[in-house]
Amino acid sequence: MSTIILGIESSCDDTSAAVCKDGKMLSNLIANQEIHKAYGGVVPELASRDHEKNIVPVVHQALEKAGVDKRELSAIAFTVGPGLLGSLLVGTSFAKTMAMALGIPIITVHHMKAHVLAHFIEDPKPAFPFLCLTVSGGHTQIVLVKDHLEMEIIGQTIDDAAGEAFDKSAKMFGLPYPGGPLVDKLAKMGDPDKFAFARPRVPGLNYSFSGLKTSVLYYLQKQEKENPNFIKENLNDLCASVQKTIVEILIKNLIKASKETGIERIAIAGGVSANSGLRDKMHEMADRRGWEIFIPRFEYCTDNAAMIAMTGHFQYLKEDFADFGVTPNPRFGF
Ligand code: KG4
Ligand code: ZN
């Protein structure tokens, strides 16, 4: 009999549903919430309300596109954390109710582990062990992946995440939220060596991005005093320089981690792995250092339910089911 998993993702501002049959992804639907742009960041209460509005049609369409009837489902997997409590509650309550009505088990999925397992949606899939740089709006981690469900964080940020560094820099440049993709776009037309920003000194494999943010802020304040049009006149170069700095900070520890562990199979995951500067740098590392690199398709980099359904599939095979009394865990650790 086939294993068919419905995956649901609602940890932040994207409502997503996907259907996975025997490890093969049949659909992956995402409803993006545009409303947060006006506020310069995700407003948790508005995010929950939009999830509530979107979840039924998104799940319906994911099943329809997959050509799967809900009565054929083996289990429902959903993001239980980390994330915004109100957002997680919508996915959790919906998944529990639907599974209860269908008489099938539920599977609770860790959002960051799912970003790593996005690499198993399509070929080429990494062999074990491999290192995964998981970079999103809320996390920056180097994960040692020993098996599908066996992972260890060997380095992480002690303050801001890489995505935050992109978004906060973008905000200082007057760009709308989320700024990461815009910085990426404008950086393509700029000079990455025009401006130099602070790089952190953090022991071990950990990261820090708060110093970079302060360095950009002070530099802009100083320049704008002399020329109020400074940002406008240098926008592309500012974006290129900030992007180069963030990418180099990320890659430096990844090289260190590879040397320390002796592992040269290296993957990137999470929203920031959509960044073209980071992707280019990974290809450069493959050429220069002989790394075997793994970069997911854009669709599977940012938040999506396909990665939740994929993780759910692996947990299903291990009969890792949750109790129906489970509640979301906004600070879910590894
Ligand atoms: O994984 P994700 O979709 O959501 C979280 O779990 O946080 O990551 C979102 C983050 C945001 O900070 C966004 O600006 C960043 O990923 N991002 C990018 C790019 N695309 C998304 N940052 C830089 N360049 C991009 N192309
Ligand atoms: Zn994410």
Can you offer a commentary on this structure?
By secondary structure, the protein is an alpha/beta fold. It contains 10 helices and 10 strands. Helix 1 (44-66) runs parallel beside helix 2 and helix 6 packs antiparallel against helix 7. The longest helix has 32 residues, at 230-261. The two termini are 32 Å apart. Bound molecules: 5'-O-[(R)-(carboxyoxy)(hydroxy)phosphoryl]adenosine and zinc ion (ZN). The site of zinc ion has 6 residues, from helix 3.
What ions, cofactors and ligands are bound? 5'-O-[(R)-(carboxyoxy)(hydroxy)phosphoryl]adenosine, zinc ion
Please give the number of β-strands: 10
Give the uncertain stretches in residue-range form: none
> How would you spell out the order of helices and strands?
EEEHEHEHEEEHHHHEHEHH
The shape is globular
Largest sheet: 5 strands, mixed
Summarize the structure.
The chain is α/β, with parallel strands linked by helices and 334 residues long. The protein has helices at residues 44-66, 85-102, 111-117, 162-172, 179-187, 210-226, 230-261, 276-289, 298-301, 306-317; strands spanning 4-9, 14-21, 24-32, 75-81, 106-110, 130-135, 140-147, 150-156, 265-269, 292-294. The longest helix is centred in the last third of the chain and has 32 residues, at 230-261.
